[in-house]
Amino acid sequence: MNQLTVFSCFVQFSLSNSLQTFLESPVYSEVNPSETVILPCVVSKKGGECMWEKDGTPVGMYQDKYEWAGAVDEGDCSLAILDASSEYDEGMWQCQVSASSIEDGDSLISKEAEVVVRAAPKELSIQSDDGTMIAPSSILKVIAGTNLDIQCVSTGGKPAPLLSFTVNDLVIPSEKQRNIRLPNGDWVSSLNFPGLVQRDWNQSTIKCIASHKMSIETIETMVQMEVFYIPEIREVTIEQTEVKEGGTVTIHCDVDSHPPSRISWMKKGQDELILSTGPDLILNSIDHSMQGVYQCSAENKVGKSEVKTVELSFNHAPVIQSVGPSQEIIAVGGSSVKLTCSAEATPAPNYRWLQQTLSGELLERGRDKALVIERVNYEDSGDYYCEASNVVSGETREILSGAINVEVRGVPQIVTETREEQNNINGGENVQFDITFCSNPMPYISWRTEEGELLPENSRRKFIVQEEELKESLCYVASMQVSNVEASDSGIYVLYLENELGVTTEDISLIIDDGFFTMEIIIAISSGSIMTIIIFIFLLFTICKSRIPSRDMESRSSGSMSDTDSRDNSSDDLIYKRTDVKKGILKCKIYQPVATDFRDANLSDLYNFPKSSNCGSMRIKKAKEAADLQSSFNANNLIHVNTMTYSSYVSYDDIDQQISDIL
Questions:
Q1: pLDDT for 364-388, tens place per residue?
Q2: C-beta of residue 126 within 8 angstroms of C-beta of residue 212
Q3: Backbone dihedral region for residue 91 (phi beyond 0: left; psi -120 to 50: alpha; all else: beta)
Q4: What is the pTM of this model?
Q5: How far apart (Å, rounded) are the C-alpha atoms in residues 156 and 146?
Q6: Which of 156, 307, 360, 444 has the highest CB neighbour count under 10 A?
């Protein structure tokens, strides 16, 4: 079975190699009028006759019109069409070869191949989508960014031309054109305008171009185009290279638009306020408030542009924009307080926080933009100021914010204790306890016993609150004064400070020494000593006064005279004289002489004591007389003396002392 199959294939292969076939067949061909075109047809093992048909009609060979282009006997049956014309030569051509023999039956007929005699387009135009032709003198008015609804149309060309659009001689990439063949063989071709209209095509020329093989030259048609577009801001610039406070600044806005647009100027943050219109914004006498971002916008009948900005900034002193969180802050003691400050300056400012305490002292509290006070106390009360500074043109510029008042409220707080404990206090002394505390609001102040019993004021115990010197710092001094302390005053004293936020207490110990000498005893001793000194001085003064010399006293003894001058001792002469200092009048008091019955013979010398002369002045000129007087004197025997005796001035007990004074 396999052998038969191999044999059959060999026979078929041998037969096929003996039959004629096309090596080359005619194809579509174009030719310019009056030119020659060759339709190829090459046959292998050609054994039959070659012939040609046009549109199904056999065509014979005619010199100078239809001729064999190759060696037919060798199988080259190609046809040369000379002096081509569309009238005779356009059509569908086929190459045919008759069979080599009746037995072989290997006749050949090629596929139809069209021959086209070229012809340029008869008409080229620009039309609207609805087919309306646009005259070359027309001006197309279009809006940028929209589709241009036009097409390039060519009619009558053979074959169909290659169409394209150009704008300002630049080819616009297009989609594939549409080609329609008419029954007469002519072509109608069209191409839509591609893409969106560009703003830079304004006042440009649109061309529709048809390229055809018939000619090297192209066929063109064109129209003018006016493009309307939304304004576009190209650039916003500050014309001055250096800007200074007080100078003039011009800001320019470069706008591209068609039709022309209205240009408006605004400042960021004030968007509703139009500062100026036109391409230039002029700012005169500029200051820091004019710094910021300036906006330029433009608008025409097509639409409104996007906003473009430029920032105006220059070196200037700081300007405080805000401090906070508020101008009045009430903080509870122990809490945290944060103060903020914002200043605008170029270059950027440095910050410093200052505190003016309630006593007027100025303190630096920080150097950051924000000041955080952790666990505030009464010392943090006061006015806070934010200071912003920078350097402009080599000069330091500073500005101080308004005050932020911080009021600290809290439970009373003990600050210092001037006397925590009073030990070894003697009875009768005065004691004062002073305790400094701070509080806001002002507390209710009371002194109590250790058991909590309220202590009232009395004649010896006073309570005082000193605030005049310290009230500006919310601090006060609570004092308790105890005068003429006693042993019963010893013990623990408790100061109670209470306000609406809490209570604070402080204990103080008082210890009294119970000695022998109390204050009453000391006062009594002192008073007695003073009185004794006064009496002694008075007596001494009196004695000294009594010794002022006047006249010698005569002895009262008959026939006997003292060593002083002798005078008659009559009873009328026994007088005591004294002078009234104020009136200068001499006054004397008369004393009666002692009766002789009472005289003692042993005291005769004493009885003869000098009489009172010179208002009682007595002078003893001899020491012996004084000694005799002292040894013989006996106060018990003395009843009266004929002159004024010392007993008129002092008691008898003081006689010895007086005599000593005389000596």
A1: 999 999 999 999 998 999 999 999 9
A2: no
A3: left
A4: 0.46
A5: 32
A6: 156
